[in-house]
């Protein structure tokens, strides 16, 4: 028995529209949420066209010309824009009938390279019981026939398994949103022994240690510590019925432990340092969870990952910006301040879920609007962009 994908109805219209413009094929990403029983697909996003593709379209169409690197880069950029609980669930391809027989092999290859690229950047490890199946959706542009299969990304030898693809309206209407503010004050020493120390590498190591603290934290949901295996919505059911469906919002407090390890004795290490990095500020985090009897542990895991991702993504964006504007060879002398980009949230049309992005202080709203169109194929009004935070350094 294969997996079932419940798919937001509007995705069907989006894919149909894409199939009328297809020449000779189009690829894209499926975005949604895994759960033990079934998976939810809330958006499909086509791969942004490359400028030189127009000239390359001479001669007979071939899937061999598929630009794997371009597609995986797009997946990495999109994954930064997803709040906790959402991930790249798979890839799709709409192709002409003559390309159909090579389509599944191309999709299989893409699924594994996208997963490899995304897992490289993660500072958390997937749980043992986590769903590792990813979807490969193939649509024939002529017949509109839909074939959905899954591959287990934890198994390089994995073969295709059939999956059900079912459309449903208002899929996320009663999903649960969890939000928290985490005060960050991370001190990362730069060892004198590491020659010409790499700021990015050191920052990542420091964030790795901090992410373990987040993993070990206690999470209070609406002021209560809840057993991980209980249902998240337990005790809230009596409010339903007379209220119309809408996002239920849970406020979460994160309590980090002051000292790690059970032993009262600890050994101190003395290291000679040539400097340090300090990350300070308050970050706004958000996660969404399906409303089909979600467990507390699913919700907390989604929020933990958002906390860890949002900080590591921002540092990555800052370093990319510094390399673009200053060049990699700049030596830091004395004290220097860099402002991390602020987080903003944008509603998804026809959904209760919001997507996220990051904005530097001097970035105009127009640049962010362009990014949403390019990365997520979604127009965004400037008044719909909610900046969630003050400036962090």
Automatic annotation (TrEMBL):
<keyword id="KW-1133">Transmembrane helix</keyword>
<keyword id="KW-0812">Transmembrane</keyword>
<dbReference type="GO" id="GO:0012505">
    <property type="term" value="C:endomembrane system"/>
</dbReference>
<comment type="function">
    <text>May play a role in the trafficking of a subset of G-protein coupled receptors.</text>
</comment>
<dbReference type="Pfam" id="PF14778">
    <property type="entry name" value="ODR4-like"/>
</dbReference>
<dbReference type="GO" id="GO:0016020">
    <property type="term" value="C:membrane"/>
</dbReference>
<dbReference type="GO" id="GO:0008104">
    <property type="term" value="P:intracellular protein localization"/>
</dbReference>
<comment type="similarity">
    <text>Belongs to the ODR-4 family.</text>
</comment>
<keyword id="KW-0472">Membrane</keyword>
<protein>
    <recommendedName>
        <fullName>Protein odr-4 homolog</fullName>
    </recommendedName>
</protein>
<dbReference type="InterPro" id="IPR029454">
    <property type="entry name" value="ODR-4-like"/>
</dbReference>
């Amino acid at each position: 028995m294969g997996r079932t994908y419940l798919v937001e109805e509007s995705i069907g219209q989006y894919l149909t529209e894409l199939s009328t413009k297809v020449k000779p094929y189009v690829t894209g990403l499926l975005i949604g949420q895994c759960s033990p029983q079934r998976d939810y697909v809330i958006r499909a996003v086509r791969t942004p066209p490359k400028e030189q593709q127009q000239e390359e379209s001479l001669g007979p169409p071939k899937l061999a010309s598929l630009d794997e690197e371009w597609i995986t880069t797009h997946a990495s950029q999109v994954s930064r824009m997803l709040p906790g609980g959402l991930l790249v669930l798979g890839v799709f391809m709409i192709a002409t009938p003559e390309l159909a027989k090579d389509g599944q092999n191309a999709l299989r290859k893409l699924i594994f390279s996208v997963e490899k690229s995304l897992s490289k950047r993660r500072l958390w490890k997937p749980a043992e019981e986590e769903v590792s199946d990813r979807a490969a959706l193939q649509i024939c542009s002529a017949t509109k026939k839909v074939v959905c299969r899954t591959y287990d990304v934890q198994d390089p030898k994995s073969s295709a398994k059939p999956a059900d693809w079912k459309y449903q309206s208002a899929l996320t209407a009663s999903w649960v949103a969890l939000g928290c503010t985490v005060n960050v004050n991370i001190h990362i020493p730069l060892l004198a022994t590491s020659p010409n120390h790499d700021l990015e590498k050191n920052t990542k190591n420091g964030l790795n240690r901090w992410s373990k603290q987040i993993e070990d934290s206690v999470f209070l949901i609406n002021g209560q510590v809840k057993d991980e295996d209980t249902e998240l919505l337990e005790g809230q059911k009596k409010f339903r019925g007379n209220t119309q469906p809408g996002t239920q919002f849970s406020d979460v407090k994160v309590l980090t432990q002051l000292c790690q390890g059970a032993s009262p004795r600890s050994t101190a290490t003395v290291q000679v340092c040539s400097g340090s990095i300090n990350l300070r500020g308050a970050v706004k985090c958000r996660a969404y969870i399906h409303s089909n009897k979600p467990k507390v542990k699913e919700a907390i895991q989604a929020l933990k990952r958002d906390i860890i991702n949002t900080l590591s993504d921002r540092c990555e964006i800052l370093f990319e910006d510094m390399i673009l504007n200053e060049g990699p060879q700049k030596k830091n002398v004395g004290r220097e301040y860099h402002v991390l980009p602020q987080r903003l949230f944008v509603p998804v049309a026809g959904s209760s879920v919001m997507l996220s992005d990051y904005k530097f202080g001097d970035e105009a709203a127009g640049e962010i609007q362009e990014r949403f169109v390019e990365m997520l194929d979604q127009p965004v009004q400037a008044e719909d962009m909610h900046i969630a935070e003050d400036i962090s350094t």
